[in-house]
Fold this sequence. Notes:
The complex is a heterodimer of chains A (about 425) and B (about 140). With about 425 residues, chain A is of the alpha/beta class. Chain A is built from 15 helices and 11 strands. In chain A, strand 10 and strand 11 form a beta hairpin. Chain B folds into 2 domains: about 45 residues, no CATH class; about 80 residues, CATH 2.40.50. Chain B has a 5-stranded mixed beta barrel. Chain B has a 3-stranded antiparallel β-sheet with strand order 2-1-3. In chain B, a hairpin with a 6-residue loop joins strand 7 and strand 8. The longest helix of chain B has 9 residues. Bound molecules: zinc ion.
Amino acid sequence: MQKKRKLGRGVAVVGAGMSKFAMFKDKDSKDLFGEAFREMIASVDKGFDPGEIDALYLGNFTNDFFVHQGHWGPIISDLIGLAPKPATRTEGACASSALAFREGVFAIASGFYDIVLAAGVEDMSKRTTEEVAEGLALATVPYEGRVGFTFPGVFGALATAYFAKYGATREDLMNITIKSHSNAPLNPKAQFPFSIRDMMNAKIESAKKKGKPVPYWEDEKSFLRDTAANPVVAWPMHLYDCCPISDGAACMLLVGEEIAKNFTDDPLYVIGIGQGSGRGLHACDDLTYFEATRHAAKEAYGMSGLKPEDIQFSEVHDCFSIAELIHIEDLGFFKPGEGHKAVAEGLTRRDGPMPINTSGGLKCKGHPVGATGVGQLFEVWKQLRGEAGERQVPKKDLRIGAAHNLGGTGGTCTLTILERR
Amino acid sequence: MEERPFSDISYEQYLNEERLMGSRCKKCGALFVPPRSICVSCYSSDMEWVEVKGEARLAAFTCISVGPPFMIAEGYDRKHPYCSGVVELEEGARVDARIEGVDANKPEDIKVGMPLKVKFLHRGEGDSLKTYLAFLPM
Ligand SMILES: [Zn+2]
């Protein structure tokens, strides 16, 4: 019997900032972190002295590999004037900054610190696509890499298992891509702020300009079925099933619950925080769900006393389209095997009953891996405070939002639930 | 020979010798392929080597167009994709393997559930000899 988890002291989020996500030739980790940090300071409604921050927890997967520089804790701590106060780097592949957030929460909950910066950063685009693939593959399970599995390959394999068990097809995954791309144009920080229709029109315009044969597609799905426009990466994963290579940074200011109102009248409270680990394709319980996500959800729901239906919207880790489909089932938003039907019915659209990835998701917003976890929580912050602009979830009394983050091929998964009171 | 440690290195050595080997917990009977030295069912470290027959069923697969450097070196690329998969052994355990003898340009013809048998793919020579676990359609 699992013990009911609780924090020794309540923790609140009182500020948040995120850089734009994109491939930046002329910006590095420090530049991007500076952007996120300045926005975070400006977001603290009643203002605060950054000199009061007690410690930094920084998620970074492998800048060591991407830019040949490791040990980013003190570099960022120095950048923001925090040194000689402590900086701790957390690594959980693509879930690195969700772990930073979690460690920051625990540091405050323990009573040791009062004000903590939880953050993430990654600078991936200075390498070739092949090198980035090699860097990301550092986070697969060794047995998988040895037989030729790539990241998209692992998720492609999970898709074939899901298809075989539940009768879903690539068409179902296309619904997810089209939905994410419908949210992205409303997010000014997204790497690809375009709908699929926008991308089709751009290709047509470009062909006309170059005097090449003008392509014709009847609708978005016929565009996605066209392997000239949407080539295979690791079947059934095609280009538009995969997130891009991105650079970016994000940070959040965490404080003890009892001092939160000194910073803002509108703090968000950390009411659920869960984490799990996975065992890889050969050893997991089943190939149609992520056991690490299910464990993380159990912890987070157990701590909050909430059920999946109490979550009003969620950011969900969609490094690949199939990942979003499986996760909305693992998190309990839909029954196993029914997620693809829910997506087809539009239930996960921004104006649907269970909005998923209003930010555009990793697919469109971008996926600077170490910054992604806090970047997802940034979207929850924006939505719960009613600051999401045109992409604001059209629900009355928006109070509870969640962010789910996955690292590697399911090795590290987290679920974080925030509440506006 | 049966003195080998229950490790990934031993697993690979056995593959070089064309044997697919796992470990079985003497206390609770749980089977692990690749081998484990600690039983994750009962935490015993009392293990024995078991050779599996190499008959399996395809549990999941992918046809990869953009592969890692060592697969590109074997001649695979966008025009010549390869298939990697997860297979469920007749004895119950699951392993990751290359899937040979299928057309990775026609993934629609590759079926989850299809019966497979083991094949040991030797690549390189001397010190750089490496054996990949593969499965072929029956
Ligand atoms: Zn045992």
